[in-house]
Amino acid sequence: MTKIYLSKSEKRLSYLLLCVPLALLTLGIYHGLMQTLYRSGMISQTSFAALDYYQGLTLHGVINALVLTTFFAVAFGHICMTYYTGVKMHLTTAWISAIIMTVGTLLTAAMILSGQASVLYTFYAPMKAHPLFYVGNTLLITGSWVAFFGWIGMYRKWRREHKGERIPLAVVATMANFIIWFVCSIAVVYSLVALLLPWSMGITATVNVPLTRTLFWFFGHALVYFWLLPVYLMFYVMLPTLAGGKQYSDNAGKLVFFLFMVFSIPVGTHHQFSEPAITQGVKFFQSLLTYGVALPSFITAFTIAASLEFAAWRKGHRSKGLFGWMTKLPFFEKDRYLFSYLICGLIIFIFGGLTGIINASYVLNSLVHNTAFLPGHFHMTVAGPVFLGIIGMSLYLLERLSGKEIRLKRIANAIPYLWTIGMFIFSAGLMVGGLRGEPRRTNMGISYMDPDSPLYRPDWVWTTGTTVIGGVILFAAAGLFFVLLIDLILTKKTKESYISFPTYRTIHQEKVVPFLNSFKPWIIIMLALVAVAYIPAILNVFEYTGKEAPPYAPQNPAPLELYQQPDEAGDPETMNLE
Amino acid sequence: MWSFEPHEIRLPVGAEVDFYLTSKDVVHGFNIHKVSLNMTAVPGGINKETVTFKEPGVYKIVCHEYCGSGHQHMMGEIIVNYPNN
Fold first, then answer.
1. Which chain A residue lies closest to B31 (C-alpha atoms)?
2. The dihedral formed by the CA atoms of A226, A227, A228 and A230, expressed in degrees to the nearest 10
3. Fewer CB atoms inside 10 A, N or C side of chain B?
4. Residue A568 confidence (pLDDT)
5. Helix, strand, coil percent content, chain B, rounded in steps of 5
6. Do A28 and A105 touch, CB atoms closer than 8 A?
7. What is residue A574's predicted lDDT score, i.e. its pLDDT?
8. Predicted local confidence at residue A578, as pLDDT
9. pLDDT one-digit tens code per residue, A307-319
């Protein structure tokens, strides 16, 4: 197990990047539970404890899905790039990036908490947020780019010093993820800076709504892979060793990360199947590509299963049954608690992935689009492997950065199992509800779940009730995690501070395959496919959009009058007066 | 902002209907779950879907995209069995 020692500045940076989102996560988790209570009608109010339902929902989405994931990807990326290349961390870019991201996050959080940005994390125009909400989001995203620019330098240096050698898989994973992230987020940053910001400030009168939606989803679907790939890195590089075995194939792992580069972005319009301005042909083509993006996950299912089975055989498993080897895995070894976070994430993701394929299908999508089925699906991805990987690895890294050891290891080991039980109950409630037409993103307690309302829907009572049971279990599991963190702060330092990861080994000694040892061909294929998929979509949007829209506040049915006609010198009325 | 226009439509059984949908303000959802009619109303665009109502009954329209503080109160229905009731 190689050890690396981080400098004081590198450690401070890592603490900042790991702890800012974990602190905010308390709010995000709190409003996760609250939503199940609102939706089931247990709370039949527009707001509770000074937090409006939709304000809380915006917090829940922005903190859990944007802030936590982006901060973690950057923090983990810094450590992985340093650990696996052996090149010193590029501190200047790293600090600039961390500061920009933190400022952006604080601005965004302040705007949501002050009630001026209850527009949900998708910020669909023409509902308008405070301009600083758009600025904050932009800084969070562009800040993460700066970290990536530093890694490009580190990668190039490694490449110069290791000509012809195979790139470490963890480096491929980290760089591939940020190449996807950089390309996809250009679209949303353009939308935020060039379209939404001037419009929210009254500099422009109207905005092209289908265009902002299309730019958002250019980013929005690749975003889910940006969440996922750091955890895929853990599945490939760390999980096999944690299980007591080796990775099945290094080249298969690389192919997977490169395929994600190719397929992550040109699939975004499958989120827009139900809307106008994009033609059927474009939607159909991107629907097919969406099945393409399932391919690397299927490869992963086989590669990781093979690696785990190999581990079980090494540990003395000898029966011929198909699944008997699974009982040999170290589910309850408290000193190897990271294994439980990853394996639980993997189990949840089987269902998250399969429901994703349902959503990609045009016809099935019309049954479930924007119903509670959707959050049911994506909680089994982002709140499954992604969330468990992030909190498990954060705990693992914080222990090593601080030189401390957590005292409640049994609890650390149990949290992911509790979370998995809660998540299955919660998601089942949402998905069955969705199949019965329950809408997502809706404060159902004051209408559909209120027996006195003309909208009352008794057929949704038990499904929303089920989500409460799941929500309470999830809340308890997350609560235990925060207990662990507080306990970690309170314990004394017992060891030296260093970073080490489980040693990466592969079963097969494979040849270096040139096209799996270079980013260039994959970047070219990626950009070409993005162009083929998205140029027609953007042309559609311009061709079929009629009137642009003025801004609206979420509480007010009339448009806001922010835009003022500039006084023109050549105005005919003024000229008449003269 | 928080209503469907018209909010009630009466149809005979077996009617094949072309729905044209748009929004005069923010983005709304339009979901008639029983017939899998699932559309998004986007200002600036017009959506079209065709649906046949084979069974008599009341088909509730649900707005399933967040459209502001009145989102959960949007109400609309299609009553099929007209004029035979």
1. A437
2. 80
3. C
4. 58
5. 5, 45, 45
6. no
7. 47
8. 42
9. 999 999 988 877 7
Contact between residue A52 and residue A554 where contact means Cβ atoms under 8 Å apart: no
Which residues fall within 8 angstroms of residue A97, CB to CB, at 6 or more apart? A74, A143, A144, A145, A146, A147, A150
Given a cut of 70, the residues of chain A with pLDDT beneath it are 567-578
Which residue, A461, A484, A518, A467, is CA-closest to A257?
A518
Query: Rounded to an integer, what distance in angstroms lies between the CA atom of residue A362 and that of residue A221?
Result: 16
Omega before A276 within 30 of 0, i.e. cis? no
Q: Are A427 and A48 in contact (CB under 8 A)?
A: no
Tokens, residue A159: 């490449």
In the numeric block, the tokens 């089925």 are attached to A373
CB A431 within 8 A of CB A357: no
Q: Please tell me the distance from the alpha carbon of residue A32 to that of residue A460, in angstroms, as a whole number.
A: 19
Q: Which residues of B touch A557 (CB under 8 A)?
A: 1-2, 25, 68, 70
Would you mind telling me the total number of residues written for chain A in this entry?
578
Residues 17-46 of B with CB under 8 A from A: 21-22, 25-27, 29, 31, 33-34, 36-40, 42-46
Contacts of A411 (CB under 8 A, 6+ apart): A480, A483, A484
Of B31, B36, B46, the CB nearest to A370: B31
Residue written as token pair 């007591």: A244
What single-letter amino acid sits at A263? F
User: DSSP 3-state assignment of A511?
Assistant: coil
Q: What is the ipTM of this complex?
A: 0.95
Instruction: Give the closest of A440, A454, A545 to B44, CB-based.
Output: A545
Greatest Cα pair distance, chain B, in angstroms, is 38
Which residue is catalytic, options A379, A387, A396, A504? A379
Helix (H) or strand (E) holding A532: helix A520-544
Contact A176, A520 (CB under 8 A): no
Q: Encode A463-494: b = buried (16+ Cβ within 10 Å), e = exposed.
A: bbbbbbbbbbbbbebbebbeebbeebeeeeee
